[in-house]
Design a protein that fits this description.
- This protein has one domain.
- Helix content is 64%, strand content 0%.
- It is globular and about 50 Å long.
- Zinc ion binds next to helix 6.
- The site of zinc ion (ZN) has 5 residues, from helix 6.
Length: 169
């Protein structure tokens, strides 16, 4: 999915968290954490596209786009972070984890790549939809993408996210 959709969903996650059991948290920090972690897996995408062109999937080459990397970070924090510090950051870790999980679930519906859910153990991209061949140019990417159902779904997600953000109290 595209960055705009990940930003919109990140904002929805933040608003939902602040409307629920995380109402006591600092709103700016919650929005920052949620939107940041909703997009962090794609952080190295431009670098990988410049280096390998579109023929290579950034999902395969980016460490940030591997769910087990984030699981290992979580386990590391659980083990090594002092308990009092963990208690302070754990609500934000939960929001970050939800944001990351939703990013990977959404990307599992991408038209060109799945998500390497089990990398580095199994490096197969898992997708919930039929994949198109990798585009060779940005133009080919755009033309093929605009014909997919995902294209329209992203409009729907961004539109409904805006409605939620504006009208949800
Ligand atoms: Zn992604």
């Amino acid at each position: 999915m595209t960055t705009l959709t990940h930003i919109a969903v990140g904002a929805v996650i933040a608003k939902a968290a602040l409307s629920g059991s995380h109402a006591h948290l600092d709103p700016m920090t919650v929005y920052a954490v949620s939107i940041l972690f909703s997009n962090l897996p794609d952080l190295t995408t431009p670098i990988i596209y410049i280096r390998y062109r579109l023929a290579k999937s950034h999902h395969l080459y980016s460490l940030f786009h591997k769910p087990l990397f984030w699981v290992s970070i979580y386990v590391f924090l659980q083990i090594f972070l002092p308990k009092n510090l963990w208690e302070i950051i754990s609500p934000y870790v939960l929001i970050a984890g939800i944001s990351l999980t939703i990013h990977f679930l959404m990307d599992s519906f991408g038209p060109f790549n799945g998500v390497v859910w089990l990398a580095p153990i199994i490096k197969k991209e898992i997708s919930f939809v039929r994949l198109f061949p990798a585009p060779l140019s940005s133009r080919e990417w755009l033309v093929t993408y605009s014909k997919t159902l995902l294209h329209k779904t992203e409009y729907l997600i961004v539109g409904s996210s805006l409605v939620y953000l504006i009208f949800k109290h």
